[in-house]
Every structure is written in C-alpha cells, then in structure tokens.
C-alpha cells in the first residue's frame, strides 16, 4: 500500500503553444493527450496538465508571493519533483542560460540533516517550478 502513486497537477498557462515549446521543447517532457485548451505532460512519471487561462494577471502571468527560506525568496505557490543528484545536475546544466533562475542552483543545509540541492525558475506564464535532489533521500522528511 506504500507504493508511490503518480500525482496529477493542472496549472494555468497564457498560451498553449508557448507551453508546448517550454515543457516539451526546453524541458523535454513527452506530450500526451491535448486539445486547443490543454496539454498532458509526462512530468517524471507524473501527470502535469497545462490549461489555457487567458484571464491571468495584467502581465499574463500567475501572481507569486515570496517567503524567506535559507536566506532566499522562495516563490509561493510552486511545485516540482525530487530527482537523483545526477538528474538534477543534468537538468541544471540543460536550463542554465535558457531560463532566468528565481533561485540559482545551489546546495542548502550542506553537511546537515536534509542536505539538498535545489533550483527554482518560472515558466513563461509565471508558474514557479522547483527541482531538488537530496544527498540522502531517506532524509526527505527529517526535521
């Protein structure tokens, strides 16, 4: 019963083709079912759906708030996935120079319980994404 199950997350985007270029082109996620108003993405085995929402903010972006964590402004809301260190580094290399980082790749809590590498960036519609990797995945929920 403890088998990890895929999550389903639907997020708003301002433009479907822009979403296709970002999630499919840049990030390399495979596209599943789609219509003129939404696209299903394989987000590391999870189902991410980008839904057209032409009523985003005046700048065409999702509004974000920032909370202080480890001396940095973490965007709220955000979503992401925990990768292996190798996959995290590969992703960091892939997107560097192609996205504007909200929080550049770095390792937080170095040498402490819960040591993790993390990075944050926004999609073109302002949705905040976090990708992280733990030095020891068994510490995912440690205090």
A few lines on this structure:
The chain has helices at residues 16-26, 85-95, and strands at 8-13, 31-34, 38-43, 46-52, 65-69, 72-76, 78-82, 101-108, 116-122, 128-134. It is α+β, with helices and mostly antiparallel strands and 143 residues long. The chain starts with 7 loop residues before the first strand and ends in a 9-residue tail after the last strand.
Tally the beta strands: 10
Which range does the strand content fall in? 35-45%
Number of helical regions = 2
Overall mean pLDDT score?
94
Give me the CATH fold name of the largest domain: 2,3-Dihydroxybiphenyl 1,2-Dioxygenase, domain 1
- Oligomeric organization of the protein chains: single chain
The major beta sheet can be summarized as: 4 strands, mixed
CATH class of the largest domain: Alpha Beta
Share in helix: 10-25%
What order do the strands of the largest sheet run in, or round the barrel if closed?
A: 1-4-3-2
> Which residues form runs of ≥5 with pLDDT under 50?
none
Form type: globular
Q: What value does the Rg take, in angstroms? A: 16 Å
Q: Which class best fits the helix and strand makeup?
A: alpha+beta
Give the end-to-end Cα distance, rounded to a whole number of Å: 25 Å
The second-level CATH architecture of the largest domain is: Roll
> What's the CATH H-level superfamily name of the largest domain?
2,3-Dihydroxybiphenyl 1,2-Dioxygenase, domain 1
Order of helices and strands: EHEEEEEEHEEE
Tally of discrete structural domains: 2
Protein name: Glyoxalase
InterPro entries: Glyas_Bleomycin-R_OHBP_Dase (IPR029068), Glyas_Fos-R_dOase_dom (IPR004360), VOC_core (IPR037523)
Domain VOC: 5-134
Pfam families: Glyoxalase (PF00903)
């Amino acid at each position: 019963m403890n088998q990890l199950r895929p999550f389903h997350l639907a997020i708003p985007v301002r433009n479907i083709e822009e979403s296709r270029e970002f999630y499919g082109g840049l990030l390399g996620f495979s596209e599943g079912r789609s219509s003129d108003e939404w696209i299903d993405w394989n987000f590391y085995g999870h189902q991410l759906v980008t839904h057209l929402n032409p009523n985003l903010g005046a700048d065409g972006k999702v509004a974000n708030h920032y909370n202080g964590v480890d001396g940095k402004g973490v965007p709220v809301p955000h979503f992401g996935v925990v990768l292996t260190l190798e996959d995290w580094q590969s992703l960091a290399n892939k997107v560097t120079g192609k996205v504007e980082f909200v929080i550049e790749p770095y390792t937080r809590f170095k040498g402490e319980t819960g040591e993790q590498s993390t990075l944050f960036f926004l999609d073109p519609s302002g949705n905040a994404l976090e990708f992280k990797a733990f030095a020891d995945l068994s510490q995912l929920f440690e205090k």
